[in-house]
Sequence to fold (674 residues):
Amino acid sequence: MRYFIPLLLASAAFAGMIVPMPNLVDPRDKQVYKTVQIGDQRWMAENLRFKLKGTFCYNKNDSYCNEYGRLYTWAASMRLVDYFNHTVAKDAVKKVHDVCPKGWRVPTNKDWKKLNYYVTKMGISDGAGISLKSKEGWDRELRLPAGSDEFGFNALPAGEFHYVGEFMDKGASTQFWASNEYDAYGAYFWRITYDSRTFEKVYDAKDNAVSVRCVEEKYYKPVEPPPPPNFVKVEVVTVQNKEILTIHVGDQVWMAKNLDVDVPGSFCYAAKDENCKKFGRLYTWSAAMKLPQEYGEKIARDSVKRTHRGLCPYGWHIPSIYDFDRLNAYLKDIDEAVGVGANLKARDIWPESDNSLPGENGFGFNALPSGILPANSPFSGLDSVTGFWSTAETDSVTALFWSLRYDSDDLVRDSAGKAGAFPVRCLMDPPGIDEIYDSTALYDSRDENRYKTVEIDGVRWMAENLRFAAPGSFCYEDKDIRCRSYGRLYPWHVAMRLPADFITNPVEGAITVDHQGICPAGWHVPSQKEWSDMMLGVAKMTKGSIAAALKMREGWVRGGAPISEASGFNAIPAGARYNDGEFMELGTSAYFWEASGGGDTGAAYWNLINSKDDVMRAEDFENTAFSLRCVKNAPVAADSTKAAPAGNAAPVGDAAAPAVAPAGNAPAGTAPAP
Fold:
């Protein structure tokens, strides 16, 4: 793929983010390490090189240790014997200091999450992995920018030693141990790979040997603190003469508090009224569904509607598994700095943990640690756990709920006995078709999809990505829920309805004026001129940038360039699917096809990026799959020189081609300045 992307000002910005600290001398072996402050933490800016049993140099070559540091099994990183690579070490780790120098430690998951949070919030690169990578030494994935090392962390691609006896992935990945175990045989590490933007937590065998980065056991005042958590304005709506606090999360509207309706089958935690006032009530599944108690022990499938009101007020319903999946997916896409669970938890009330960040309450959901009442057990988990019933059953006596725990940043789906009692959060019923789409909406008779549209400078555009399931098109990560939210992804030849090899073997005249491709009847794939004219029209209607006006506010990862939504075009960051089958850039990039390509030029597309305030045009030669927006065909003017016989109007859709073909098929290599 060829990008024509301006990459200005980057190097100057990177230098300004680095906060160097004094070198660290390890008194044990006199090794000297550079250190750097990132947020309120001080980190080694090099991998640990301290030698002991259970450590390796890559390919058993000492020169690699000098440059990349040593590779440690998890037990070695905790300075334990190899026995603890196969046994829970919870008690043993309390008795010894790990492999880091005194005053420093092997980071906990919480330490790594704090680093990821700060880098994601403050970095200017598209992803924490890019921000932390060293500038040199990495294998290149041409679809991604090179490592920027904008905080001086200098993550080198040190590879790993796999327990089967193989050294692997030098140049392609790096992993850093966390001190947290997963179980007797596994522990967590944090990984960066050459072909990903992310910095992710993974668990693997303790017998594997990976790098160690030490963090100091004290905190510093940040030179530049991260932005404070978002303040979310809670909206008050009146339902059945009662005021209800609500919040918007994506396209969903949730109650901002747990339900507190006193009915049989509901409880206050520990039978104390003050707990109901603070946390809401706990409900058995059948009580929440507003079904007879007998459904606690028998299947209620035929009695539970697709949108099931249960105890919720009119116009609201008990969330389904799909509703929770949609919430979970949206929060994962929109905020890479914070886990979904941390974003849902209330601030300043959940206990601290070495495995999780404090509650962020980034969207106003304000989940409180209400505790639960498990089936056939006493109340438990006050101040440390909560869970929310869904409408889904697993069998006659169990149903699905979604839980939040003090020691996890995730929203987790689980099952529990229906006789147990959990909180209930109500979700507003989705609007009907007539509420979403007005008279300007496009109706696609092929699959009964409807699309919002917008007129920009006299031309009507789709204001949503096409969802038509053409053969050869994709949902992001092959998940239907992504298609509903983001539209489908199409290779250019699929969008254009042309042969798969058209770019290399074009046929003259195959790309027509108002080329329909897979657009609905009366609509077409936009030409270069139509894209350029549309952007000039957007420039007339706003004082801000064209990119800000084209983007919709929902869906883009937080912390990017400004968004105004001024145009109504509603560009959503649907990402892309590459020809190797990998999906990338959901939440950070939007790509839209143009009706030009072939011969010496690739398939033309237009691109918006989360961190940039401009629109770019480029070409694709690699059969990548992008989004498609369609443009309405211009009405054909009647030929006034010929009078049609009375009563013989031309059939709708049979209008002749316009006398003057619109311009717009300029060579793809000549990008206008919108």
Q: What stands out?
A: Confidence is low (pLDDT under 50) at residues 1-16, 640-674. The first strand starts at residue 19 and ends at 25. The longest helix spans residues 109-122. The two ends are 22 Å apart (CA to CA).
